[in-house]
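Page 47, continued from p. 46.
Same chain as before, 628 aa.
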Amino acid sequence: MNKEVQAVLDKLPGTPGVYIMRDQSGTVIYVGKAISLRNRVRQYFQPSNWKIPKVASLAEQIANLDYVLTDSEIEALVLEANLIKKYQPKFNVLLRDDKQYPYIQVTTHEMYPRVVKVRDREKMQGKIFGPFVSGHAVNLVMAHLRRQVPMRTCSLALDGTRKLKRPCLNYDLGRCLGPCQGGISTEIYEQHVQRTLKVLSGKERDLQKNLQERMMTEAAQMNYEAAAEVRDLLEAFKQITEKQKMVEMNREDRDVVGIAQNQTHTIAYVFFLRNGKIQGHDHFLLDGGEGQPVGEILSAFIRQFYSGTAYIPREIHMELPAVDLEQIETWLSQVRQGPVHLMVPQRGEKRKMVRLAKKNAENLVNRRAKEVLHRREHGKSLMSNLQEVLRMDTQPKRLEAYDISNLQHAEIVGAMVVFEDGVKKNQDYRRFKIRSLKGPDDYESFREMMRRRIQRGLKEQNESGNSRKGFARFPDLILVDGGKGQISAVQTVLDECGVVLPICGMVKDDHHRTRALIFEGREIDLQAHRHLFQLITQIQDEVHRFAITYHRKLRKNTMVRSELDQIDGIGEKRRNALYRVFGTIDAMAEADVADLAEVPEMNRRAAEAVASHFKKKASSKEAENPIQ
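Result:
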């Protein structure tokens, strides 16, 4: 314990709050809550508690301690959940699959409503249907609705006046009435809105009846593919409107949670029952739960899962009581604005459902354990094969692959992907924006990227003295997308930094497919090594994908900003506001100063600047292309 931590411990109050623990680098490694901060936090520094490996490891790494006072334990519970989501501390039990289920939103708060799929509870307005476990079913239903009911899909802020000079393609296809033209009455449009609401409410029985008849007709005519498509659509409508798969006698809403764990994985399995019927099920992978009591895992899962979902049922059933059960019930009841009970059924059908959820969780844990073992053994076999093919002295474990992406002298980016024992390690991926070059130069781009990567690694090694974490951990083999030129560029940087690492080039054929490796001046054909060939192809494709995705993102941002950023007084907020209202640059160019000034975040002066810009641009085009 250092002096800073000791000073904080001496001043800890005996009141409720949240404590935040950081390591030497300032990274948050644990977040917890307490009724009494003084009593709870001091427990981590008592040798009698270090018999628990996790507590001992945590206490060893604490270099800084902070805390936040709250008025009650309920407030501390909510704040703890929010901070865990924000910082993702490695010593907390973390809900890795933080899923947000889709809803169908009919934007009845707008003059001309739309039907959209939403996941963010903060953006939900108008009439909401859901949540739905199957996003695919939602997509099928919405696609069918758009074909049958001509409602708009654009996000323009429409007020009944003409917004666009020319409507979009949906208008020509008969899938939109074109309210952007200002010629559609709200009364006519409302008829389509009401039909949509009726369909989504399950009251439009004729629709499903027609789909059933259409499916039978297609099957009778032996159009089996068409019949299968209608069948899938019919099933999607049933999932959306009826929400049932298995029926129970009790007509109630509840979730049933089962937890299973082994040495490497912890999984929560949930059945969702709505109106007494199993609407669906899902599973969630939890980080850091291995070796933890089930009650603590349940507590962490419930707090994180229900802080991110819009619907909380009246009852949540589980196999054991969760830690802080009463506080969680109080918090969930406040969020739901109605009573919520966390229950441990002891007998009957409800107990059977809990056991079934646990059985499904155990099945998934066992499957994942077998998959991990298989991947690990297969990966080690591939690394042994790679060592043999390259004639390396030691078997490589960590591979780092690099690639450069550039287009038309625009943004130049580099990418680094990491594989360990033949398996992707996504958390170690890194992206580099090349800063020193104006035009494309692969060799110099590789040099800058590798120089930044190696120098960062050396710096972290010197600061922490640990060469097994982050950039401080160097690879056993460097893979570059290219041949001898790229290898030479990387070798130059390694020599400058005094680092010795093996470098291998990944060579492609004329059809841009992986062909061979270049190592120590030798070209090694991979065709005779099928599994190794598949791995190198995967690595080469992955680093290329990662690089090109980043490049496209930067290019898209540049294209979006380029037009409006030329105008004085138009920053990010005003630019986004203009796009929300007008949708396109062409619509902005056609708008007058008064319309532009009505946009949120805009004022008269900014509106005049925008109008003047487009007026000058139009005059310039006329001068370049005079009418003959």
